[in-house]
Every structure is written in C-alpha cells, then in structure tokens.
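Note to self: keep these together.
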Amino acid sequence: MSGAVNREWTRAAYDAIVLAGGRGSRLGGLDKGSVRVAGRTLLDQALEAAAAADRVVVVGFGPVPEGVLLVREEPAFGGPAAALVAGLGALPRPSRAPFVLVLACDLPHSVEGVPLLEAAVGGDQDDEGRGESAAVDGWCLAGPDGRAQWLLGLYRAAALERAAEHLGTATDRSLGLMLGGLRLGVIPAPERVTADIDTPDDLQRWTR
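Structure:
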C-alpha cells in the first residue's frame, strides 16, 4: 500500500500496524474505527496516514481495503499491547520492513503526525535502518504537555520484537510495560496531532 501519499524524503522502508479493535467502553461501546469525523471514518483517516507503508495490518474491525491485512488479537479485547503483538506477528518475515509505524485509529490528525516521524528517521538510514541514530529504538510524538504518545510512533521492528519477547504474555498487559523500556526519541507535536478520541466529550469536540 505504498505511493498513495507523496513523501518528499529519502526514507527507510516501514510497515504499519493500525490498532482499531478496542472496546470503546468510555464511548459507550462504540467501534472507534467506524466513528466519523469530518465526514470520514477514523479508520479511513488512519489508513490514509499509513498510506506510505509497505504493508499495513489493521488489528480490530473491518472492513478494510484490498491489500490491507485484518487480524485480531487472541483473545479479543486483550488490550493495546496484545493488539500490537498480534499485528507484529502478522507481518511477514523475512521480508518485514526495518521500521514499523504504530498508529491508533482514534487520532484524527495522525496524517499530520506521520511526516514528523518520517523526518525524525531522516535520510541517513540505509535499507537496514542503520544510521547516525542507530542507538535509538524508535521515535514517538508528544503533545505540549510532554507526554509521549506511544500509539503514534515509528519503531525499529527488531526493537518491537525484543519488547514483545520480554513482555511474554501480552493479554491485559499495559502498553507501558511493553514500550516503556525502549530508547525513544520524543518529537514535539501540536496538541491536535496527539489528541485522541477517548470520551464522549472528546468526540463532541472533534465532531463539532
């Protein structure tokens, strides 16, 4: 699913995992991916943000376009760490790209955030993801409050694999337990880019 968005940079290849299968319990059980903001579903907007990825895996609910792989964590509703591990396992090896874009579907302005991540990786990477910043396991965005938004990040695939192995059983484990030990570059971003839709008030603000 590459080429749909013009990326004017020399980039290292990446795959994408879109998390779209939460319970939406704080939204009354809504399927977040099907929520419409500005006339489009959140899942469609996330897929647009991931359009430059070599391969895209959606973990959650469909439908998804042709060429996008749809999977679920087992058991379902096992939490974002379990969903991320399921998405990582669905990416084919050994042809997996050296980087993985991790993206939650409930970030309406993620299409603005992905180029910030791409720029952080920069043009100093070779095809294996090596470069001056090789000591970093990945990059994620942070809003004005400085809090890292792990679900809008570009990570080294090998680092995610190590994190998944170290975590062990992923069901009902926190994302912090999986990603908190990684060496990450944190990229400042506008609040609208890192703000998610988690509550009815959030949804009202975005739809208004």
